Amino acid sequence: MFSYFFKNVVPFRYEVEGDVISEEMLLDFIPQLKHVPIKASQKEAFGFSSIVGFENDEQYIHSIDGWILLSLTFQKKNIKKSLLNRRFNDLKIITNENNFKMGKAKLTQEEEEELRAKVYLELLTEVQPDEDYLNVIVDTYSKNIYLSNDKAKYQKVFTNLMRKGIESFSMSNFNPHGVGLHLTQWLYKPTENLPSEISLEDSTYLTSEQSARARLTKQDLHSDEIQVLINHGKKCSVHFPINETVLN
C-alpha cells in the first residue's frame, strides 16, 4: 500500500480450506517458488521475488498485522514475427541453394519446420527480456486479495503458484465497486470508519463521477471539508492515503 508498491489496485476475494491464509502457510512454499532469472533459451520466467521496496533480496514475505505483502517477477522475451520470418526465409533460400549445388532436394515441410524452430531458438538467445512485477496484499481480516496489475495472465500465474502450496486456494467474486469504495469509507468520518491500526497522511486523490480527479495535498483528511466533497459524489481513488510509518 505504499505508492511505489501499489500504483493500481485490483481487489478479489480468496477462499482456502481452513478459512484464512497465514504467514506460516506461505513460508512453507513461497521461497521454493522464487523467481529464477530467465535462461538464454527460455521464452519466459516467473516466480516470487523479494518484496519491492525492501533491501533484503531474500525477503519474500512481509506481514503487517493482518496484511501480508508478496511480490512476483515476470520476465518475457518478445520475438517479432516479421524478424523471425525474414531470418527464416533468408536461411531457407541459402539452404535450398546449397542443396541444389550438391544435387539434393529442396527442404521438406518437416525440415522447414525444424529450421524455423532453430531460428526461433537463436533469436531467443539474442533478445533481452522485458521485466514486470505483480505486487500482492493478502488481507487476512477481510479475506480480500489486492493485486497491482489487472492482466488476466498474471492473475492466473499467481493463482497457480499459490495452489502449489495451498491446493484449495482460489480467487473469485471480483469486487465491482473497487477498492476506492473502502478507501472512501475510511476518509468519511475516519474516527468511526478507519481501522485503528492505520493513520492518515495529509494527501489523497478524489475523483468525481465525471472522472475529474483532484489531488489534495497538505490537507487535514479528518476535516469536515473532506466529508462535504464525499457527500457531493467524490470518491477516493488510486493511492492509499496511509501513513507509511504504519507499514514499516
Short description:
The chain is of the alpha+beta class and 248 residues long. 32% of the residues lie in helices and 21% in strands. The protein is elongated.
For this structure, the quaternary state is single chain
The DSSP helix count reads 7
Query: What share of residues is helical?
Result: 25-40%
Structural class: alpha+beta
Rounded mean pLDDT score: 83
Query: Span between N and C termini?
Result: 11 Å
Number of strands: 10
Mass-distribution shape: elongated
SSE topology string: EHEEEHHEEHEHHEEHE
Radius of gyration over C-alpha positions, nearest whole angstrom: 25 Å
Strand composition percent: 15-25%
The largest sheet, given as strand count, sense and whether it forms a barrel, is:
7 strands, antiparallel
Give the low-pLDDT segments.
239-248
Verbal overview:
This protein is of the alpha+beta class and 248 residues long. Helix content is 32%, strand content 21%. It has seven helices and ten strands. Strand 3 and strand 4 form a beta hairpin. It is elongated, with a radius of gyration of 25 Å.
